[in-house]
Specification:
- Pathway: Cofactor biosynthesis; thiamine diphosphate biosynthesis; 4-methyl-5-(2-phosphoethyl)-thiazole from 5-(2-hydroxyethyl)-4-methylthiazole: step 1/1.
- The protein is an alpha/beta fold and 280 residues long.
- It has a domain of 194 residues: UDP-N-acetylmuramoyl-L-alanine:D-glutamate ligase (3-Layer(aba) Sandwich), CATH 3.40.1190.
- The protein is 44% helix and 16% strand.
- The strands form two sheets. It has a nine-stranded mixed beta sheet with strand order 2-1-3-4-5-8-9-10-11, with helices on both faces. Strands 6-7 form a two-stranded antiparallel sheet.
- Helix 2 packs parallel to helix 10.
- The protein is globular, with a radius of gyration of 17 Å.
- The chain binds adenosine-5'-diphosphate, 4-methyl-5-hydroxyethylthiazole phosphate (TZP) and magnesium ion.
- Magnesium ion (MG) binds next to helix 8.
- The site of magnesium ion has 5 residues, from helix 8.
């Protein structure tokens, strides 16, 4: 699956997209890691989605077939988990339910690289989201993934994201200090987010949940651009104290979740101001 025939950033209206998504109350089935599962569920809910975390191999195909989105996050990968994710992904493909994959820690171990490769190769994936090192590793290039963290700088991340999008036939979101959204032809830089988001475990996982909610209602490229921009905007709003004071990363996370819930269609957010096409 590739991006849309999106040829003009300026026809991207967050208010319109978010209202469409909220009106649908999309059911998102997430097979995700136990480290951040509750945050993923709440982030899904706060964007206007309905989370369900069904991952039993006996029922997951049935649950996904009734859903509007399927999130596969391999953070605490296991043999059973891989089997369940592949089963869920195939069921989603058959039911034309958009699949979002977060290949957490790909490149850190041969096992994670093999699982991530199977997920993005065997399945038709609408959007892949990972940090700069994970996307670089997924593209088959040298990357330094320490555990699940991105280490080092990736100056060519825009080109790498396009290469990854081309290889996987998916829209790719490479997150970090600067977020990149790419399809097989074009990369966009999304100027949104705050360093405090990097002090919270789970902000990458919750970005995946955000993308799954938006992808339920609009094409993958617009969903990735609007979702990534709105998500980063929420991080900025929380850091600015718009959703209450905080004393450190734990209380910031609470403010961040409140900011996601408060970023509704009325929000003064013009995502097109945050998105720039990357030209070589
Ligand atoms: N230094 C930063 N400045 C701005 N935004 C950031 C920064 N670090 C992380 N983010 C934001 O936090 C979210 C998670 O990104 P990242 O930390 O790269 O994911 P992961 O947790 O999977 O490694 C993204 O929306 C990203 O834009
Ligand atoms: C620490 C950790 N270990 C396995 S999954 C996970 C959470 C990763 O969350 P994020 O990718 O959002 O930082
Ligand atoms: Mg992550």
């Amino acid at each position: 699956m590739n991006g849309s025939d999106f040829d003009d950033i300026h026809d991207l209206d967050f208010h319109e997209l978010h209202s469409t998504v909220e009106a649908q109350t999309p059911l998102i089935n997430a097979l995700t890691n136990e480290v951040t599962v509750n945050d993923v569920a709440n982030c899904t809910l706060h964007w206007g989605g309905l989370p369900v975390m069904s991952d039993d191999t006996r029922e997951v195909a049935d649950m996904v077939s009734t859903a509007d989105g399927c999130l596969l996050n391999m953070g605490t990968v296991s043999e059973r988990g891989e089997e369940a994710m592949l089963k869920a992904g195939h069921a989603a493909n058959e039911a034309d339910v958009p699949v979002v994959v977060d290949p957490v820690g790909v490149g850190a171990t041969p096992t994670r690289s093999a699982v991530a490769d199977r997920l993005v190769t065997d399945l038709d994936v609408a959007i892949i989201n990972g940090n700069h090192a994970e996307i670089t590793a997924l593209a088959g290039e040298d990357a330094d993934v320490r555990g699940v963290e991105s280490i080092g700088e990736y100056a060519d991340i825009a080109e790498t994201a396009i290469a990854c999008a081309r290889r996987t036939d998916s829209v790719v979101v490479a997150s970090g200090e600067t977020d990149i959204v790419a399809d097989a032809e074009t990369a966009f830089e999304v100027d949104a987010g705050h360093p405090r988001m990097g002090t919270v475990v789970g902000t990458g996982c919750m970005l995946g949940a955000t993308l799954a909610v938006f992808a339920a209602g609009v094409d993958p490229l617009r969903a990735a651009l609007a979702g990534t921009a709105a998500y980063g905007f929420a991080g900025e709003q929380a850091a600015a104290g718009e959703y209450g004071d905080f004393d450190g990363p734990a209380s910031y996370k609470i403010a961040f979740l409140d900011a996601v819930a408060g970023t509704d269609a009325e929000a003064e957010l013009d995502v097109t101001d945050r998105i720039r096409e990357v030209t070589n």
